[in-house]
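Repro:
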Amino acid sequence: MAEELRLICRSGDVAEAGKGVRFSVERYGREVPAFVIRFHGVVYGYFNECGHVPAELDWMPGEFFDDSKLYLICSIHGALYAPDSGRCLGGRCQGKGLRALKVREIDGKILLEQER
């Protein structure tokens, strides 16, 4: 299948272990929330949904990291996720990680890789 790149934001909009950028993705015919963050210099994208229940992670728009800036945290349940893999590290996620999206950073832009 061919892939299409969709612009999410500029690279400078996503700071290292800082505020993420929210956007939406079409999934099963409806728009669902998603986000990108930067961790150790690499951009990662995920659906904005806790592995435990369908609740958005950020406690304020774009605030996905815990106070230590080492983990992504669910604002409702306190579940912790690895920023570089979405893997559940503890809390109510009970081994269910975040669902990753394919994102790329090219020429100062962060792009979502979508199948056509």
